[in-house]
Specification:
298 residues, alpha/beta, Arginase, Chain A, eight-stranded parallel β-sheet, 8 helices, 33% helix, agmatinase activity, EC 3.5.3.11, Ureohydrolase, Ureohydrolase_Mn_BS, hydrolase
Length: 298
């Protein structure tokens, strides 16, 4: 391999040094950590994902032979947040996200997705389809007594008509959940695929299920890293056994070419609980695979 060693690459995602918010594709960190679990949080998640992405810059993958860095892409650093003010932080995140044409957000915790969906849905003027990969439904009406937190973004997204629940599919769900929340979610029209069902289907059949739900209209991808089993992603605040393997998630994303995704996030990386950067690397690779899909579309 020619060129400088990977440790000498710039600190941006995939070593991207350009910081133009007007780029066609914008990577941004959203280091919001509301702190609604007993484990160390996700504030350092964006930095950890960027560091791990240096492992991905030495070549291109033979599965698709595209380099996301060939896109009109920039890494603009981290969004500003209002520390200790959840509604204020969500408003700030929404305003900054609205200025980005196609955003790839590195979390931070899952509560940020509500602000990102507000920005994108309002800019497009239509509810979005949603692929939500997670161990948890995240449709609780509140989370530990807080109305806006990492367990409730999609409750609000559905209520605010930011997403069309009939075009929303959740993959990897396996955490305990109260029956009322489960029934409410299903009653809205959401398609929920449990972790065990997802593994039994396999990436190819799972991708066809996703295509059938999302259709051809604009959609969004939100990937909570705890969709992966803790064996592959220990660095997260709310691990649940029985999750997908890294290769299964990667295989799923690679089969979603042609869908009209308009943005994505990968969230809930908690470096304090990571081992040898494997969680951060998984998150960086999923964002890389998503960008590879966009490069293939073009």
């Amino acid at each position: 391999m020619a060129g400088p060693p990977t440790f000498a690459t710039p600190p941006g995602f995939l070593g991207i040094a350009r910081a133009d918010p007007g780029a066609g594709f914008v990577v941004a960190g959203v280091p919001l950590d509301i702190g609604t679990t007993n484990r160390a949080g996700t504030r350092d998640g964006p930095a950890a994902i960027r560091r791990a992405s240096r492992m991905l810059v030495d070549g291109i993958h033979p599965e698709h032979w595209v380099d996301p860095r060939d896109l009109d892409i920039a890494d603009i650093g981290d969004f500003a947040i209002a520390l200790g003010d959840i509604p204020g932080s969500l408003a700030l995140i929404e305003r900054q996200a609205a200025a980005c044409q196609h955003l790839v957000a590195l979390g931070g915790e899952h509560g940020i997705t509500l602000a990102l969906l507000r920005a994108l849905s309002r800019r497009l003027g239509t509810p979005l389809g949603l692929l939500h990969c997670d161990a948890h439904v995240d449709t609780w009406a509140d989370n530990f007594g807080q109305a806006f937190a990492h367990g409730s973004p999609f409750y609000h997204a559905i209520r605010e008509r930011l997403v069309d629940p009939r075009r929303m599919i959740q993959i990897g769900i396996r955490s305990p959940v109260d029956r009322a929340t489960w029934d409410w979610t299903i009653a809205q029209g959401v398609t929920t695929v449990t972790g065990q069902e997802a593994q039994e289907l396999g990436p190819a059949a799972l991708a066809e299920r996703v295509r059938g739900v999302l259709g051809a209209a604009p959609a969004y991808l939100s990937f909570d890293i705890d969709c992966l089993d803790p064996a592959f992603a220990p660095g997260t605040g709310t691990p649940e056994i029985g999750g997908l393997a890294s290769w299964q998630a990667q295989g799923l994303l690679r089969r979603l070419g042609g869908l009209d995704f308009r943005g994505m996030d990968v969230v809930e990386v908690s470096p304090a609980h990571d081992v040898a950067e494997i969680t951060a690397l998984a998150a960086a690779t999923l964002a890389w695979e998503y960008l590879a899909l966009q490069a293939l579309r073009r």
